[in-house]
Design brief:
about 325 residues; alpha/beta; FAD/NAD(P)-binding domain; 2 domains; 7-stranded mixed sheet; 5-stranded parallel sheet; 8 helices; 17 strands; membrane; transmembrane helix
Length: about 325
């Protein structure tokens, strides 16, 4: 095992420990590594976008696979001396002692959390198996790739109306399955004006044949042919470590950060989907860069204070001035 794989093989005190090696975490590590900070990135290997074959909307990386992006990113940050540690963080103590599964402990001056979120999917047969393939969430991420094909929107909450209203930009054949969602008169008027059809009834399952989505089956047995289905998952931030550190939250339960990702707890930043459920890959990468610069500036101020304190402690005592002729 190399030094980069074994944090206990060397002095394990870091300027910054980044938890999470997605686009946000690696982007932050890249900036901090280039700033000649001692950085470790700890990652448990569970990227949110692993089911997706490609990512879109990232300038110069459009169409690249998420796995390839992370592979390139890890190589880039390693080139600047960043330690990449494949492990799970079990606990972060105030101080900051970052405790890894297996017993290793890293000491950090600052912590940057980029642990992302998990998608809670509706318990409809077929949804989980097709997630990231032809069962989708974000039209900006995947709409172009399934353009001009029959879409279905399976409602899991009020946001489905907005999703259905957005999708006709990519297809003229959009059907909303509201299920238990009560549509107001205004909702129905807007959907109709947008050309979205509404089909009542409970969704029983997705119909898949020859490894392709074929349609949406309702509880009564009717199958509505569809080539792509959009759902809104329940987005749950992976923020247990932030909870344990007692970071302030907003009314929706998400951790509160400023424009740089700084939380209410001194020395703790949160970036990417753990702090913003709307962040796409390119957005998360930008958030990581912004946070890294803020973290470095914070460390610079601390470095200056420490240097002043050290200089004052080492300065010789000045002899008292004795008046002439005394």
């Amino acid at each position: 095992m190399s030094d980069r794989e074994n944090p206990m093989a060397h002095d394990s005190v870091y300027d910054v420990v980044v938890v999470g090696a997605g686009a946000a975490g690696l982007s932050a590590a890249l900036v901090l590594g280039r700033a000649r900070r001692r950085v470790a990135v700890v990652d448990a290997g569970e990227p949110r976008n692993a089911p997706a074959a490609h990512m879109q909307g990232f300038l110069s990386r459009d169409g690249m696979s998420p796995a390839a992006l992370l592979e390139v990113g890890r190589a880039e940050v390693a080139g600047y001396g960043v330690d990449l540690i494949d492990a799970r963080v079990d606990q972060i103590d105030h101080g900051f002692f970052v405790r890894l599964a297996g017993g290793a402990v890293l000491r950090a001056r600052r912590v940057l959390m980029a642990t992302g979120l998990r998608d809670g999917l509706p318990e409809i047969p077929g949804v989980g198996d097709r997630w990231g393939r032809d069962v989708l969430h974000c039209p900006y991420c995947h709409g172009y790739e399934v353009r001009d094909r029959p879409f279905g929107v399976v409602a899991t909450g009020p946001g489905a109306v907005h999703q259905a209203l957005l999708l006709p930009q990519w297809s003229r054949d959009v059907v909303l399955f509201p299920q238990a969602l009560e549509l107001s008169g205004g909702d129905r008027e807007r959907l109709t004006a947008r050309g979205v059809k509404i089909i009542e009834g409970s969704v029983k399952r997705l119909v898949v044949r020859d490894d392709e989505l074929r349609g949406v089956e309702l509880s009564g047995g009717r199958v509505v042919p569809r080539d792509a289905v959009f759902v809104q998952p329940k987005m749950v931030p992976r923020d247990a470590l932030l909870t344990a550190l007692e970071c302030e939250r907003d009314d929706s339960g998400w951790v509160v950060t400023d424009g740089t990702g700084r939380t209410s707890v001194h020395g703790v930043w949160a970036v990417g989907n753990v702090a913003d459920q709307r962040a796409q890959v390119v957005t998360a990468a930008g958030m990581g860069s912004v946070a890294a610069i803020a973290v470095n500036h914070d460390l610079v101020e601390e470095d200056i204070e420490r240097a002043i304190e050290s200089a004052r402690a080492q300065a010789p005592m000045t002899a008292p001035c004795v008046p002439a002729g005394s």
